[in-house]
Input
Amino acid sequence: QGKFTLLRDTRTDGSFLVHHFLSFYLRAGCKVCFVALLQSFSHYNIVAQKLGVNLTAAKERGQLVFLEGLKSCLDLVFGEEEEQPGQPSPLQFLSESPSDLRALFDFVRVSLSAPDSGSWKGPVLLVDDLTVLLSLGATPVAVLDFIHYCRVHVCSQLKGNIVVLVHSSEDVEDEENELVVNSLCHHSDLILWAEGLATGFCKDVHGQMKIIKRLSLQQVGEQDLVQVYQYKIQERNVTFFARGLSAAVL
Output
């Protein structure tokens, strides 16, 4: 409880980690607020069904609060957003200057502090992909402030968990993106870093996973624990193995 987990991908797609955590927390009986900025609800629902979870049913019983970022952006830009009285759109920053993410934080706070939240095991905030906010015009400071307030509310006050996916590219000079990613790395309790293979594509090894447990956050003088595995994504699960020990090699 009270942990901040950062999912990071470089030269590969780390969305399989998002699907894992989404299905994991829903099966565990947690209240989940999912800020989905990258894909549509139907996309996540189809993948979740393969993992044995029904997102539509989870929404209907109040366990899952889903923000479909793609649809909200289009509705807001084209003036088709149906605003609730006293409740601005969570992505209201798109039409404001200077922009801040207060409305998005309020959406998260209200979603996880609802009266029915006590019937679930614990609150969880899941964000996919946080760096999309930068592409939509939010400043790095606004994004980091949003995460800071979410950590205070969800992790410290509600004793819940936060899982955030960020995309980093070593080949493109995007200073704002790297600033956000590096800042989040310093404040994370656990980092799962999915990387593409340096040697290129391989059908039997899809990438490398670096697991960094931030022991230095818990105790001064401790070294972070780093484990490195390679993985292969299958239809319904992911196989992990030590580097160079895939089934194809052995």
Notes: The two ends are 39 Å apart (CA to CA). The mean pLDDT is 88. The beta strands are 4-10, 31-36, 64-68, 123-128, 161-167, 190-195, 207-213, 225-233, 238-241. The CA atoms of residues 38 and 131 lie 10 Å apart.
